[in-house]
Amino acid sequence: MQQLGTGEATAWAQLLDYWNPRLYSYVIYNGATEAEAQRLIHSIFSEVVQTVVGSLPIANLTILIFSIAYQQILRYRQQTLDPALKQLPPAIQLADPDDDPWAGFFHTFYQFTPEVQQILLLHYLFEITLPEISQIVAQSEEVLTKILRRAKFSLQSIERNVK
What we know:
Helix content is 73%, strand content 0%. It has helices spanning 2-5, 9-28, 34-52, 61-80, 90-94, 101-109, 114-125, 130-137, 141-162.
């Protein structure tokens, strides 16, 4: 972190090498196109640079990066997707839940609010711990535990079909 704060090029290159694929996956799972994903990743890293350079020491880079990504994704989704339509990414819209169990999973997944979707992605896909997610999304661990239980219950029947 100290090397990032002083602007050391090697530290920033390592940061980009490690985080770019993770952020790309996170953005794509939120329905962004390739061009939108590149724009969002650039915006996320720009905000990370602004936060790290010249600020107080950052204790946890994962929390910082995913906090910024979480906020940017929610803004992106508010601007681009009509929440009333619960718009699914095109590949999922075309899939038949009766023929493809993963399509059923994603149809159910996209029925959750964008905030709940982000919590699920952070926890299950990126294996971010509950205390870290709590800081990222500004919710208590107790609230997050309830959200995860309800979501798991909703997805369990579909999960059995996928396996």
